[in-house]
Design goal:
Blueprint: H1 14-22, E1 34-37, E2 44-51, E3 56-63, E4 66-67, E5 71-75, H2 79-94, E6 102-106, E7 111-115, E8 121-122, H3 123-128, H4 136-150, H5 153-156, H6 158-167, H7 171-180, H8 199-207, H9 209-224, E9 228-230, E10 239-241, E11 246-248, E12 255-257, H10 259-276, H11 281-306, H12 315-342, H13 348-351, H14 356-376, H15 383-394
Antiparallel strand pairs: 1-2, 2-3, 3-7, 4-5, 6-7, 8-10, 9-12, 10-11
Helix pairs in contact: 4-11, 9-12, 10-11, 10-12, 12-14, 14-15
The structure holds 5-S-methyl-5-thio-alpha-D-ribofuranose and magnesium ion.
Length: 395
C-alpha cells in the first residue's frame, strides 16, 4: 500500500503530488504548497513542490510506465524507480557531497522524494548558456573514483559485491543502452534520427566493418564486465552544478558494468562542448584532463589504502586496471559521440546550433572523432595522446 492509500500505480498530477508531500511530514500540516511538473527528460515526471512561507521545497520524481521520449508505445519497467532510489542511497553513502539526499521512496507509485537542487542548473544547459563551472571536473573525478572503487570487488569485498550485483540487476534499462548506444547507430535501424546532410557519412559508418567489430567488443565488455556499480547514464544532463557545487542525479540506468562506461560518458559529453564551443574550447579540454587526473589520483589512493584484496595491492595490477578503464572509457566515449549524433536521443549541444552548415560540420566532427576513439582506444596509452587526437580532429 502506498502513502496515498492506493495499492496500484497511477501517474501523479500536480494536485496529488501536493497530497503526497503533505503526508510525508516534511512540511507542516497546514502548509500552503504549490507544485509544478518540471520534467524535461526522456522518461519520468518530476514535480517541484514548494512551501514559500517556510522556505522549504522538495522534488518528487515518478517513473512513467513508458518512455516519455517516444510515447506509450514503448513500455518501460517501473522497477527503475527502485533501482534509482537504491543507487542514490548507495552513491550518497559513498560520495555524499555529490549526490542529492533521498527523503522517501514508494515502490507502488514508483516515486522518489528527494532534495530540491533548483539552486543549481543542469550542467549541459549551463554550458550551452556560457557557464564553465570551474569545479565540476574535480568533483566528477572524485565522484567517479569513490563510487567506482567502493562498489568494486576491491573496495567492497567479493561477497558484498555479489549481493549488490543482484540488487542492481537492471535488464530493461541495460537493453536501452545496448540498443541505442551499442547497436542501432551501426545499421539502418528505425530508432536512428539524423539529418539528410549526414547521410553519406552515416552510410560509410554502416559499412565500416572494422568499426562494427570494435563496437561489438565494447558491447561485450558492457554485457559481461561486472566491475563496478555504474551510474549508467552519466551525461551532462544528469549533473546539476553551479560554480561551487556539483550533484549527480538520475541513476535509473545503474547496474554492475565496466568502470570505463561512466568515465567515457563524462568524456564524451564534455567533448561536445570542445566541438561546439569555440570560445571556451580550452577550458573544456582542461575539464576532461582534470576528470581523468582526479579520478586516477583518488582511485590510486583508495586502491592503496582501502583495498580489501591482499593480492591486489600491487602497483602493476593497479596500473593494469587503470589502463583498462582508460581504453574502455575512450571506446564508450566514441559510442556516445556517435549515438548522440545519429541515434534516437540527441543532445542540445549539437542540435541547438542554428546555422545548418555549422551544425552539420560539428556533427561530422563528432562522428569522426567517435570512430577514431572506438578504433584507436587501445593504442592511446596516455591522457596527453588522447587530447592531441581531440585537438587535431577539432581544429
Ligand atoms: C528512451 S531513453 C533515451 C535515452 O535517455 C536516457 O537519458 C538515456 O541516455 C537513454 O539512452
Ligand atoms: Mg536520465
Amino acid at each position: 500500500m502506498s502513502i496515498l492509500n492506493q495499492s496500484t500505480y497511477h501517474p501523479l498530477t500536480e494536485t496529488t503530488a501536493i497530497e503526497l508531500a503533505l503526508n510525508l511530514s516534511i512540511f507542516s500540516e497546514d502548509a500552503e504548497l504549490s507544485c509544478k511538473e518540471i520534467g524535461d527528460g526522456n522518461l519520468n515526471l518530476v514535480f517541484h513542490v514548494i512551501d514559500t512561507q517556510a522556505g522549504k521545497s522538495i522534488i518528487i520524481k515518478q517513473a512513467l510506465p513508458y518512455a516519455k521520449v517516444v510515447g506509450e508505445s514503448w513500455p518501460l519497467t517501473l522497477n527503475r524507480a527502485k533501482i534509482e532510489a537504491d543507487a542514490l542511497k548507495t552513491f550518497g553513502r559513498i560520495a555524499p557531497d555529490f549526490v542529492p539526499e533521498v527523503y522517501y521512496t514508494d515502490d507502488v507509485l514508483a516515486v522518489t522524494v528527494m532534495e530540491d537542487l533548483s539552486h543549481l542548473l543542469i550542467a549541459r544547459t549551463g554550458f550551452i548558456n556560457g557557464e564553465t563551472y570551474p569545479l565540476i571536473s574535480t568533483h566528477v573525478g572524485e565522484y567517479l573514483a569513490k563510487t567506482l572503487f567502493y562498489t568494486s570487488d576491491y573496495g567492497l569485498g567479493p561477497g558484498r559485491k555479489k549481493e549488490q550485483v543482484q540488487q542492481f540487476i537492471n535488464p530493461e534499462l541495460c537493453k536501452i543502452t545496448e540498443d541505442l548506444i551499442l547497436t542501432d547507430p551501426y545499421y539502418d535501424a528505425e530508432t536512428n534520427e539524423f539529418e539528410e546532410g549526414l547521410r553519406p557519412i552515416v552510410v560509410d559508418l554502416w559499412r565500416d566493418e572494422e568499426l562494427k567489430f570494435h563496437v561489438n567488443v565494447l558491447k561485450k565488455t558492457f554485457l559481461t564486465d561486472a566491475e563496478v556499480l555504474l551510474h549508467g547514464d552519466l551525461h551532462t544532463g544528469s549533473i546539476f552544478a553551479n560554480n561551487s557545487e556539483t550533484k549527480v542525479i538520475d541513476p535509473e540506468f545503474a547496474f554492475y558494468g565496466p568502470a570505463g562506461f561512466d568515465i567515457g560518458q563524462v568524456f564524451a559529453n564534455l567533448l561536445f562542448q570542445v566541438i561546439v564551443n569555440n570560445k571556451k574550447r580550452d577550458l573544456f579540454v582542461e575539464h576532461i584532463e582534470t576528470v581523468w587526473d582526479v579520478f586516477k589520483n583518488t582511485f590510486t589512493i583508495l586502491w592503496e589504502t582501502e583495498n580489501k584484496e591482499v593480492l591486489a595491492q600491487s602497483a602493476s595490477f593497479l596500473s593494469y586496471n587503470l589502463s583498462k578503464f582508460f581504453a574502455d572509457a575512450l571506446g564508450f566515449a566514441g559510442c556516445e559521440l556517435i549515438r548522440r549524433t545519429i541515434g534516437l536521443a540527441h543532445v542540445a549541444d549539437l542540435d541547438g546550433i542554428k546555422d545548418e552548415q555549422t551544425r552539420l560540420a560539428a556533427k561530422r566532427k563528432s562522428l569522426e572523432l567517435g570512430g577514431i576513439l572506438i578504433k584507436q582506444r587501445k593504442n592511446i596509452k596516455e591522457l596527453g595522446e588522447f587530447i592531441e587526437i581531440v585537438k587535431e580532429k577539432i581544429n
